[in-house]
Design goal:
- It contains 8 helices and 2 strands.
- The protein has 203 residues and is mainly alpha-helical.
- Strands 1-2 form a two-stranded antiparallel ribbon.
- The longest helix has 30 residues.
- The C terminus is likely disordered.
- This is CbiM.
- It is a multi-pass membrane protein.
């Protein structure tokens, strides 16, 4: 789901850079530095998961794991994803430096949204946790696809068909991400619950 260099308009690149900078600043401010290792591990997981990809026009289809990163890190997901995307751009030419801000917004914003929507349910019973985690994993990919489609559409109206193709191609990824996120969160709930966000129980 990386947008390549030279695809987006200059206005969108600037807007993406500003939003990514703001999100990263907020994320750094909110990081619990006693849990910085968690941030590093999840950034690494995001980095590795999206290395294996299938090119699709100006973008690509691959695992993202931004849902689980968002659930476990909250706002700290923003700097974690920015660092991972930067390293991918530098070492593997995935995406690009000029598109880094837009790519970060496309992948990190859904992570934050899913954190606020679904993390309060992680203190419930196992079935609720599984459902919430699945929806976070699948929903984060869906939101990323929608943001990517909007970015392409507002660059060129002719990209509308490409946007629909990207969303359609990522439908299986949404299901896979939901299952993986559900597995990871329920596993962590059992063996390492300290990593889960401590939220008020939802009744």
């Amino acid at each position: 789901m990386h947008i390549s260099e030279g695809v987006l308009s200059g206005q969108l690149l600037i807007a993406g850079g500003v939003l990514a900078f703001a999100g990263t600043a907020v994320g750094l401010k909110k990081i619990d530095y006693d849990k910085i290792v968690h941030v590093a591990i999840l950034a690494s997981a995001f980095f590795v998961a999206s290395l294996i990809h299938v090119n699709l026009g100006p973008s690509s289809v691959h695992l993202i794991l931004n849902g689980v990163v968002g659930l476990l890190l909250g706002w700290a997901a923003f700097p974690a994803i920015v660092v991972a995307l930067f390293l991918q751009a530098v070492f593997f030419q995935y995406g690009g430096i000029t598109a880094l801000g837009c790519n970060a917004v496309i992948m990190a914003t859904p992570a934050i949204v899913c954190y606020y929507l679904f993390s309060p349910f992680l203190n419930r019973g196992k079935r609720t946790v599984i459902v919430a985690s699945f929806l976070a994993g699948a929903g984060s990919v869906l939101l990323s696809c929608l943001l990517l489609g909007l970015a392409l559409y507002f660059t060129e109206k002719s990209f509308f068909e490409v946007s629909l193709l990207i969303i359609t191609a990522n439908l299986p990824v949404m299901i896979i991400e939901g299952v993986i996120t559900g597995f990871i969160v329920t596993f962590l709930q059992r063996v390492y619950p300290e990593i889960l966000p401590q939220k008020r129980r939802v009744t």
